[in-house]
Specification:
Number of domains: 2
Largest sheet: 3 strands, antiparallel
Structural class: alpha+beta
Shape: extended
Radius of gyration: 35 Å
Number of strands: 7
Strand content: 15-25%
Helix content: 10-25%
Strand order of the largest sheet: 1-2-3
Distance between the termini: 130 Å
Order of helices and strands: HEEEHHEEHHEE
Length: about 220
């Protein structure tokens, strides 16, 4: 009886050196041009560990002790073409404890305005426009109507020194953000004398409030 023997032949593949190099070579990725991220001032900008600033002395006949106003600045985009230094916080210190409460409240409010961003120079004009009913005083050859006006003058001088303002008297007269809110839907006309809402309308010949029903006709 004849026995048939079959022999299996294994096949082998050989990779050329250039093929292996092509498989292991890293894929080149087109490099994107690096662009510096511009940091704009807004309320969410975190306070750095260290700030640059200056302290100014106010000696006025209106107060018994001198007041020291410290204004610290934040530097945005340092080392770039968009580097900008702008006021970030304000502190007022004095031996006169009589003014402690309002100076703390004032500095917190001004600092909050500074940190929201935008053109905050209107703070200068708002402070300079405050008149003391007891009268002002002459300071460095200029009549200052109140100690708040003196603080406004210090802030203005500081803004000029850091390049935030171009010169004296060039600050905004009003808050630009408040004007935007007024254009975008602030109520017009008179307010209701009863509830204060701006919902007065003419009903049967009488101005009537649509919110509370107040009417001059009873």
């Amino acid at each position: 009886m004849a026995i048939k023997i079959t022999k299996k032949i294994k096949s082998y593949s050989v990779n050329k050196p250039e093929d292996k190099a092509a498989e292991t070579a890293p894929v080149a990725v087109a490099a994107m041009p690096a662009t510096a991220e511009i940091i704009h001032m807004h309320e969410k900008v975190e306070r750095p560990e260290a700030l640059v600033g200056a302290t100014y002395k106010i000696k006025s006949p209106l107060v018994e002790h001198a007041m020291y106003v410290t204004i610290n600045d934040i530097v945005l985009n340092p080392g770039t073409d968009h580097e900008l230094r702008r006021p970030f916080e304000v502190f007022i210190n004095s031996k006169n404890m009589e003014h402690f409460a309002w100076t703390v409240a004032l500095t917190r409010m001004i600092s909050a305005v500074f940190r929201r961003g935008g053109d905050v120079s209107f703070v200068v004009e708002e402070l300079k426009a405050v008149f003391d009913p007891r009268g002002g005083a002459w300071m460095q050859g200029k009549y200052i109507p109140s100690i708040l006006a003196a603080i406004g003058g210090v802030i203005e001088r500081h803004m000029i020194s850091i390049g935030f303002l171009k010169g004296e008297g060039m600050a905004l007269k009003t808050d630009p953000k408040a004007e935007v809110m007024a254009v975008n839907g602030a109520p017009r006309g008179k307010a209701c004398p009863s509830c204060g809402s701006y919902d007065l309308r003419m009903v049967e010949g009488c101005m009537t409030c649509g919110s509370c029903g107040h009417s001059k006709c009873g």
